[in-house]
Amino acid sequence: MSAHSIFSPSASHRILNCPPSLMLCAKQPDQSSAYAAEGTSAHELCAYLVEKALGRSVKDPTENLDYYNAEMQTCAEGYASFVMEEYEKAKAACPDAQVFVEQRVDISRWVPGCGGTADCIILSDGAVEVIDYKHGVGVPVSASSEEFGGNPQLMCYCLGVLEMFDGIYDVSTVKMVIFQPRRENVSEYTMSKADLLRWANEVLAPVAALALEGKGEFKAGDHCRFCKVKATCRKRAEFNLEAAKYDFVMPAELEDYEIDAILMMVDHLTEWANDVKEYALAEALNGKEYGHFKVVEGRSNRKYTSEEDVSKTVEAAGYDPWERKLMGITAMTSLLGKKKFEELLGPLTYKPRGKPALVPKSDKRPAMKNSAQADFNE
Question: What is residue 363's predicted lDDT score, i.e. its pLDDT?
Answer without folding.
Answer: 76
